[in-house]
Amino acid sequence: MFRLRTYTVIPALPQQLTRLRDLAYNIWWCWNADARELFRRLDPELWEDVVHNPVRFLAHVAQRRLDQAAQDKAFLAHMQRVLAALDSYMNREGWFAKSHSDLKDARIAYFSMEFGLHESLPIYSGGLGILAGDHLKSASDLGIPLVGVGLLYRQGYFQQRLTADGWQMEEYPSLDFFQMPILPVTNGDNQPLTITLPVGEREVRVQIWVVQVGRVPLYLLDTDVAENDPRDREITARLYGGDNEQRIRQEIVLGIGGLRALKLLNISPDVCHMNEGHAAFLTVEHLHSKRDEGKLDFGEAREAVASSLVFTTHTPVPAGIDRFERELIDTYLSPYLPAIGLNLEEFLALGKLEEAQPVKGEFCMAVLALRLAGGANGVSALHGHVSREMWYNVWPGAPRDEVPITSITNGIHTNTWICPELAELLDRYLGPTWTENPVDHDVWSRVDEIPDLELWRAHERRRIALVSFARKRLREQLRRRGAPAAQIKAADEVLNPDALTIGFARRFAPYKRGSLLFRNPTRLAKIIAGADRPVQFIFAGKAHPRDDNGKAVIKEILEQLETAAFRGKIIFIENYDIVVARMLVQGADVWLNNPIKPREASGTSGMKVAPNGGLNLSILDGWWPEAYDGHNGWAIDEGRIQEDPAYRDHLEGEAIYDLLEKELIPAFYDRSADGLPRAWIARIKASMRTICPMFNTNRMLEEYANRLYVPAAHRWRHLSRDNFAGAKALAQWKRSLAGEWGSVHVEQVDAESDRELPVGAEVRVRARVHLGKVQPKDVAVELYNGRIDPSGHLVEGGAVEMTCADHLENGTFWFDGTIPCRRSGRHGYAVRVVPRHADLVHRYDAGLIVWS
Questions:
Q1: pLDDT value at residue 180
Q2: Pick from 51, 445, 612, 665: most CB atoms within 10 A?
């Protein structure tokens, strides 16, 4: 056996071109068309062959071509223009510094299991990762002082291959990190920077890599290190691969290892954002670190840590939430628990959902994050409501309307997803500010000034490009399957570049109902059969490797596509990734989305078609209820949730056919004398005008900053100042209050006897409350009031604080309050007592409440 010594060879760039390497390693180029064109200009064919990866491109481009470019004045001028734009971008003052100048030196750490930045970094699976990638890009654009933390997967997510009979197979090719826009972080001796941490019975070494995302560094952790046991090298082998034990090992590396990596890099975050529950174990390391730093007990450390944590939940589907058996928590977390001052039973209690649930039950990562984070949010208004319904038991006694989970609706990074044709059009008619400030509604209102002909022709060119791309991909996948030559040749004639083209691409989880379109094949065949008004569909998407139900949906679709009625008019593109997604959202006329409501937390794929001139045909789920106005797309349902699955599928399947027949097809094919579908173009403009300025990640990041990051950073700085004096005081106050809370109760409630009151009147209420040793300043006595629905439940509740009117004796007080009668109907109220302290992150933070 011999010892292998390694070294790295880098491209021999001529002196004039040396900064091309700097450009290649900052993936700012992936949302700057001029920068991408610079690379393409050197060798267009090679650029496509290397899947738009500039690092691999520079390693393979011919030395002769580089030497030519070094003497090409036009190319050098182009390069200088791109580099000047990059330098200006990197050095300019951003929105955050202007809006929150007192936090210029703050750091926000954003933890995510996956990041979808570009096809050259295939360490993502779907929407969660794409959103995380867009999150970093907009943070860079806005100058938010954010760093990303994730895992670097040697085999990424799987490559999808479909067998001849339609069954999904998975392939896991290994990635060559040295041919990707990613660099190892090194120490002063130019050696890879590593951390170690216990994962089960062994210490695991973890290497740190960095991807530069504009102004935001993304640190990725890799256990495929020679010193590690072979089993530990597999921890970061695959995204979402393996069983629950593999998952908990990955999440320990992400959460605990991620914070340790930041510490080694001298990054001390003011705020840690957990993008889904995968990263929730960072709370353990955070508690450990703060206990050591301030010599705190668990309660004090918890106050400090909670003040700085933000948690985003992304799924209303229980199967999408990580849960671990007690034995796994015992095996993998027990080594960490002494350092945070908890035993196993106490830690398990942090991850159980209901008070009645035995501690021996499954440990829920989302519950751990909700219990320890000061701020939490869903990813659309509807999902916020669903999340409060899902997780209300985390805060016993809290009305569901007041469960402390807010919502920030997702968006897209517009510059990443818009096609060059539409971007050029917007530059001419909206001006350059649409890229710099995509949230400006006044700018987007100018889309009405774009001539219909120019807008339509730009979008048509993208549809033609999509059809060409789809034919090429179909040929490739048929060739891989060993299809007959005649069938491969026939792929050159599938689809019609002038036909109404509808896209459906997403993860094939059963709740997304990928096969709903085929519920009535006879009616669907009639719809797409029209020679003068053709309609065609392009499907794409993967099922999770262990989701046989999802795979069965794909197989069902592929079987339908073999029938004569659908052949050549409906196709399925293998291996859905960013490349396929980009082509689809840029070229499709319509984006179809038909999940089971309300299981789509947000969805962002439909947002991506809007700036590209596409329209949405969607169930009113996720983000669409906030966007749809009757003129900017189509709603499949009326917003109601149908309980009977068979009836629901029948109703909504028929609604899709009705909309196609009665609205979409006529609007697309009814042309004016100049051949333009004027009504359709009007909808395109309405879609761009209403959706683009709202559903983008710049707006989303501004909301995260203003509503969650900045308040969390201020709380953290306040509570950690003077050796955590604020955290210690708050913990002591909570302990003292909890010790006396058992004596707090509402003794009597008196109110006016009138049963009917006119609008504009007031209900006057007096309550006698026994507080015992608790001081009135430490509580809020409130009238929780609202409308009574037909089932007798109080809905749309709100609180009116009562004032302390009289002190009786033995800790008993009278409180007075009034409820304004603002609208007619049946209303109700109850008196409640909740803790009050300036440093509580929300009224239920102390876990105490008393109702009359």
A1: 96
A2: 612
- Residue 424: both structure tokens together: 């050029």
Same fold, 105-407 and 415-695: yes
Q: Please report the beta strands in 707-778, taking only residues with DSSP state E, as ranges in sequence order.
A: 745-751, 762-770
Residue percentage of the chain with pLDDT more than 70:
98
Every domain of the chain and the residues it spans: 15-91, 105-407, 415-695, 744-851
The pLDDT tens digits for 206-227 are 999 999 999 999 999 999 999 9
Neighbouring-strand partners of residue 618: 593, 635
Q: What span, in angstroms and rounded, lies between the C-alpha atoms of 843 and 782?
A: 12
Q: How many CA atoms lie within 13 A of 406 on its CB side?
A: 13
Question: Residue 484, by phi and psi: left (phi above 0), alpha (psi -120 to 50) or beta?
Answer: beta
The beta-carbon contacts of 97-104 under 8 Å, at least 24 apart in sequence, are 97/143, 99/705, 99/706, 100/705, 100/710, 103/145, 103/270, 103/710, 103/713, 103/714, 104/145
Query: Residue 685 and residue 694: Cα distance in Å, rounded?
Result: 14
pLDDT band for 782, please (50, 70, 90 cuts).
Answer: very high
| Domain boundaries 415-695, corresponding CATH code | 3.40.50.2000
CATH 3.30.200.210 fits 105-407, yes or no: no
Distances in Å between the alpha carbon of 298 and those of 343, 543, 845? 11, 42, 16
Give domain 744-851's CATH architecture: Sandwich (2.60)
Is 358's pLDDT higher than 50? no
Q: Mean pLDDT, to the nearest integer, of 645-656? A: 94
| Crossing angle of the two packed helices 365-372 and 282-294, in degrees rounded to 10 | 30
